[in-house]
Amino acid sequence: MAERRSRPRGEARRELILDVALKSFAENGFHGASIAEIAALCGLSQPGLLHHFPTKAALLAAVLEYRDRIDAARLEWSDRPRGLEALRRLARLVEHNTHVPGLVQLFTVVTGEAVTAGHPANAWATARYRVLESDLAQALSHGITDGTIRPDTDTRALARQIFAMMDGLQLQWLLDPESADMSGLFRSYIDAVIASIATGE
Amino acid sequence: MAERRSRPRGEARRELILDVALKSFAENGFHGASIAEIAALCGLSQPGLLHHFPTKAALLAAVLEYRDRIDAARLEWSDRPRGLEALRRLARLVEHNTHVPGLVQLFTVVTGEAVTAGHPANAWATARYRVLESDLAQALSHGITDGTIRPDTDTRALARQIFAMMDGLQLQWLLDPESADMSGLFRSYIDAVIASIATGE
To answer: In sequence order, which ranges of chain A are alpha helices (DSSP H)?
Structure first.
């Protein structure tokens, strides 16, 4: 960290590489992306790029971490929304996602190919869903505790379903935004979920 | 067709190529799959393979069409299930899919990368969701007509959501079958949908 702070130009270059690489992985996937092309787009030699990120897999890992930070900030997950508010927050996130198709595409392309054996994002994607499930289930459990959510709600199953709906709608929206209104379809699903689990308290 | 019938060995070879290619596209995606490797696994020279399928894109198109035929037969969609029965049929399809992870993986990997510009499966994937939406919406409309489904049901939106849930759960299940019980999670979602749209007639 000390090194970064004392070298703002190095930090700026690192961010530039992450931005360019994010776009390239979103457009080409991991296997299709080219380190040589990413370096050229950044005005760097290939060794110059590899100085910052030693392998293509390391670059992808850094891009995914970078995207997660952007999302976490957007979701304001750090203030730990509880109960039904967590669901409303997710609906707003999906609405926001309609304005950042590049980020959505990165996620869809990379998690799709991450199911293959030996893919460098396999562990990241697997861990990510476990954390999402656990965080959302915990938020919903708070709603059970404070009486706003029905106590017979299967919070972990519902969390898995909610993220599945989000991902599936992203895919359809990226392919065909005219036919698949991602934001409206997700919101109507969340409204139905809320109607079915809310106690009305 | 006449040519095929008179050359059963050619037909058998074609099926072998499709089986091998399906596995390769599922494991490597379109960009990562190698025509040379697929040919070798079939015991063919590369020109021998290209005699049957002139390009890698043509081979992928044939594999996707082959997979759709398998699915349509499995779903028995040809007898046009109507109303809530169509939803129960989909839940059984997802249960069946837990036994054919290779087919599920082909679909997840190829549709994920198909969102990228110029991908050979882009038009296939886009058209596929439109047909799925239209067929399921029509089946649900029959349920409105015969009084088993509430008339205020947005059949097209619900169809989009149901296929989104199916796809999102496939992704989580492929990554982490211990944590994501695809079949159980899909069935509980479908049960909730039925509870919310059925009139009880």
So the answer is: 2-6, 8-32, 35-41, 46-52, 56-75, 84-97, 101-114, 122-145, 155-175, 182-197
